[in-house]
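Handout, section B. The chain below has 282 residues.
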Amino acid sequence: MDLYDYNTVKKILSRHGFTFSKALGQNFLINPDVCPAMAASLNADSQTGVLEVGPGIGVLTKELCTVAGKVAAVELDKRLLPVLSETLGDFDNLEIISGDVMKLNLKELINEKFAHCNRVAVCANLPYYITSPVIMTLLESRLPIDEIVVMVQKEAGERLCAPVGSRDAGAVTVAVNYYADSEILFEVGRESFMPSPKVDSVVIRLKLRREAKYQVENEKKLFTVVKCAFSQRRKTAANSISNTMGIPKDKVNAVFSDLGIEPNIRAERLTMEDLINISQAL
């Protein structure tokens, strides 16, 4: 069964009465080069477990099942379950889980489904609308996973992998840099999907660190400061922090002055060390 063939995919979906949901950001891959490359990037073997988010019709799932010992795929859209039973019924190392990845206890799921695996990775073609929430959940939950390889909107991928303190940096950039080493693996054109979206995509890898790169006294406070600093990007970082945290502006300015940070600097120019020092001083 060729899941990259447009007509084959149309027939399968028609047979199950399936129509695309714009609300769920459904765009299925039909480029035969992309999914094998994503699966190969994991360097998986028979002792590797892979958690997939949003398998769709199973085009990436199929490739993951050929390289990994066990694959667990979480699908939110119940309409796709019978489709997946048809397209992936031949794989005995696959388990489809019906549910919302944002509401599942992922630590329990991983420990249960991959109990006999030496390592676990996450691999997915993420819907654009849920990219940041899913990635943040995977990072903040401190799951027993080695890496995350995902396809995301190109602009989002560039922001996720940007250096902290650069023009493209945002709050999510800081979070990614705090937990992992990131890189863009390759680009994927919009014509690779059915239906074709209006933007191009990239595949990125987040390699989770086993040991903390930064010494932080209070992580919750750090990320509160980060969120507030980037919440009003047209304002200076000091003004944004003052406005959103309810801290008098003169106190924030005094902290910036003590730390040797320019008073009119914008959030995207702050380094990780700047943000950590600000959060601890406040």
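Note. The first strand starts at residue 28 and ends at 29. Compare this with the example in section A.
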